[in-house]
Specification:
Blueprint: H1 5-36, H2 48-59, H3 64-113, H4 120-143, H5 151-183, H6 185-205, H7 226-250, H8 256-263, E1 267-268, E2 271-272, H9 276-302, H10 309-334, H11 342-369, H12 375-397, H13 405-436
Antiparallel strand pairs: 1-2
Helix pairs in contact: 1-3, 1-4, 1-5, 1-6, 1-9, 3-4, 3-6, 3-12, 5-6, 5-9, 7-10, 7-11, 7-12, 7-13, 9-11, 10-11, 10-13, 11-12
Amino acid sequence: MGHPRGLFYLAFTEAWERFSYYGMTGLLSLYMVNQLLLPGHVERIAGFPAFRSALESIVGPLSTQALAAQTFGLYTGFVYFTPLVGGLIADRWIGQRAAVVIGALAMSAGHLAMAFDQSFLVALLLLVVGSGLLKGNITAQVGTLYPPDDEARRSRGFVIFSTAINIGSVLGPLVCGALAQVYGWQWGFGIAGLFMIAGVFTYLSGYRHLPARVARESGSTEALTSSDRRRVAALAAVMALTVFQSIAYFQLFNVNPIWIQQHVAPTVAGFTVPIPWYQASNSLFAIIGVPLVLWIWRLQARRGREPGDLARIGVGSWLAAASNLILVGAILLAGSGLVHPIWPVLYSFFLGIGFLYYWPTLLALVSRAAPARLKATLMGFSFMTLFVANTLIGWIGGFYERMSPMAFWSLHAAIGAVGGLAVAMFGERLDRLFRSR
């Protein structure tokens, strides 16, 4: 297909990794609430009394559901924090290839350890450390497969790589969710571990075709100008604005499965829908929504009304707010009965489209506007916004039992709307700064 052989080893490795990550994540909240944190199981978790005591010393006493939400938020938050450290370790000491191998092996061990109550916290730690070593470094290797002047082919290479990510994100919850429902939690976690091991073998098979280190970008040692510093400050402000829609988006994976279990009709035409399939639909919509979003942007461009970067991020905020309002409307329609499954599917659809508006736009903006010497660092900090958002959804998820479902999802709609209002207030000023460059 005209691309370096190493691209396909990286793409398939990442597909297996995303399969295992999203497959396990789709089960995690349900597993904790329905089994792991209940009497008879929670006593077996090594180190859990100290972990719970540390959490409750900060946020106060926690119910089982609130404890699960806090644990989920901390886990997914640190998954997005550690790539910054993993990139530093790879750049300074061990190189990208070795970092990815060590990270993939750690994640494989973590997924397999999830099958046992005793090793639950150890499993989460292995997954966080492994993801930190793997996630950023495997993405960095994609770009270095191409010559510096081959921008067109590099862009198409990232499209192929991103497609593999989305395929893994769809299949993981589908397969792991079905196995967990039919055979038990251990089967769901076990298959996630096996696919992560497949990722290790895939990567090792293509090891000789992959770059060991990411070369430094030319001009990266130049001193920052006053214009550079203003752009860095502006990028930091944009990153802060995206935290609001990230909170409204990522609750999809934390409290939303618990709400579906409690308030959504479990069957469609006699078929019991595994709850992780709702999360899989979000990743599916992120794939099929790409041509739709690109068509909308092309149509707007022909009319001279294509939105700028900040306007797109603002649209993403409003779509995240509207998605949560769909759940509010569904609760109103259902009254005292169960919500029809179509409503959480529509919620996932609009969240997926909103994600396409704001997250790729943020990464593209950082790649374009960041000073050369800080490009990689600022790209790492863009993922730190997901660390902040996921940590906050754990804290906010702890209020779920104290609020009505309508109030809880209304709160998330309001949080998304705050991001949209902030973009409306400051977006044009920031956009002018980036355009002037």
